Amino acid sequence: MTATHRIRVGGVHAYDIVIAPGAHAQLSDAQWPIKAKQLLLVSDTNVAPIYAATVQAQLQSAGYEVSLHVIEAGEQSKNLASFESVIQSLAAMGARRDACIVALGGGVVGDLAGFAAACWMRGIHFVQLPTSLLAMVDSSVGGKTGIDIPAGKNLLGAFHFPRAVVIDPEVLTTLPLRERAAGFAEVIKYGALGDAGFFTWLESQASALCALEPIATARAIAACCQMKADIVEADPFERGKRALLNFGHTFGHAIEAAQAFGGLNHGEAVAIGMCCAAKLSESLFGAPVQDRQRLERLLAQFALPTRIPAELDPAKLLAHMRLDKKADRNGLRFIVWDGIGQARIAEGIADADVLEAMKAD
Ligand SMILES: NC(=O)c1ccc[n+]([C@@H]2O[C@H](COP(=O)([O-])OP(=O)(O)OC[C@H]3O[C@@H](n4cnc5c(N)ncnc54)[C@H](O)[C@@H]3O)[C@@H](O)[C@H]2O)c1
Ligand SMILES: O=C(O)C(=O)C[C@@H](O)[C@H](O)[C@H](O)COP(=O)(O)O
Ligand SMILES: [Zn+2]
């Protein structure tokens, strides 16, 4: 599948996800449901030098006034200082309520730019042009926007839905290998949490996907976007089943926070987190050990880590988990599984079991 593929995320905040090779170089034809004349294009120091000029020129030729805001690349920029800098750019360009933010980058740019859009004048439109695999399969879809603070991951944020998501798989050719692997962690997550058939397909296509073979890659992106669209449409504000998309994230976010957002990247931390969640599921609910081993093997095929780094203290990670957004007055809640493709929410889990799940075998 290399032709244009369109997925509708339905509901009150409906929008289209368009997956089309070359799409970011043809934005002058894009028909977005936005009122804007003024656009703020937000990107980062890795992506902007490669892609911003083309995108900006395309948008200008479509009749928009485009200002550019570039943040330092990396998770450590998904913070209050960068948020303020985007807001200052909106003020400097005199952005009205009918302005629109266009996020050109990975999940860091998308989450930050989306949050700025949620806050500016209490909410303006935004469009996602994801450039990392992770952003294409996960962060650009679903309207979770936000930033990190030292106490924890994504602790400041808002649900604010994009008006359009335009995915151009061709831009993945410049994505560094480590970031490519990070994206595959979230791809594997979809199979692990809800689609055993997709998981098996990933096992069979691992080499093609590692090489970013175009047909397999486009299929994987479309499958992930479709799964996320279905879940988000059913539960946009995470009152129920959307929490399944958090498989591996309670552990993963704790790792990221413990490393002050400067160690493992999000995909790597989630990869380890999924293995911990599978271990927890085994010891508490008798989930099959073979399924955890399949998960670990598949992650390893994509050069992803599966074990908590030895220097991280599990007790400190547990402390970070107290601020997990799924926790409530009854304590922590985890996404566990009964095997590949069968995730569910579990509550009332004892600290000792969480600590045990983080131990090396
Ligand atoms: N909102 C959500 O639903 C959601 C979902 C998953 C992850 N996230 C968030 O997304 C973030 C991770 O996203 P990410 O993995 O994209 O990280 P990222 O945005 O830091 O991008 C990874 C790296 O790749 C570079 N890059 C991106 N596209 C490139 C390209 N085409 N060519 C060359 N370099 C490129 C970036 O500059 C960066 O250095 C985390 O903050 C995570 O919390 C959010
Ligand atoms: O879209 C969702 O819902 C997700 O949980 C997707 C996750 O991959 C993503 O990392 C998300 O940002 C985590 O959200 P949080 O609510 O745990 O901060
Ligand atoms: Zn994630």
UniProtKB/TrEMBL annotation:
Transmembrane segments: none annotated. Keywords: Amino-acid biosynthesis, Aromatic amino acid biosynthesis, Cobalt, Cytoplasm, Lyase, Metal-binding, NAD, Nucleotide-binding, Zinc. The lineage of its organism: Bacteria, Pseudomonadati, Pseudomonadota, Gammaproteobacteria, Lysobacterales. Pathway: Metabolic intermediate biosynthesis; chorismate biosynthesis; chorismate from D-erythrose 4-phosphate and phosphoenolpyruvate: step 2/7. Pfam families: DHQ_synthase, DHQS_C. It comes from Lysobacter soyae. Residues 183-327 form the 3-dehydroquinate synthase C-terminal domain. Binds 1 divalent metal cation per subunit. Can use either Co(2+) or Zn(2+). Residues 70-179 form the 3-dehydroquinate synthase N-terminal domain. NAD(+) binds at residues 107-111, 131-132, 144, 153. Belongs to the sugar phosphate cyclases superfamily. Dehydroquinate synthase family. Catalyzes the conversion of 3-deoxy-D-arabino-heptulosonate 7-phosphate (DAHP) to dehydroquinate (DHQ). It catalyses: 7-phospho-2-dehydro-3-deoxy-D-arabino-heptonate = 3-dehydroquinate + phosphate. The keyword Magnesium does not apply. Zn(2+) binds at residues 186, 249, 266. It is found in: Cytoplasm. Its cofactor is NAD(+); Co(2+); Zn(2+). This is 3-dehydroquinate synthase. Its EC number is 4.2.3.4. It comes from the Bacteria.
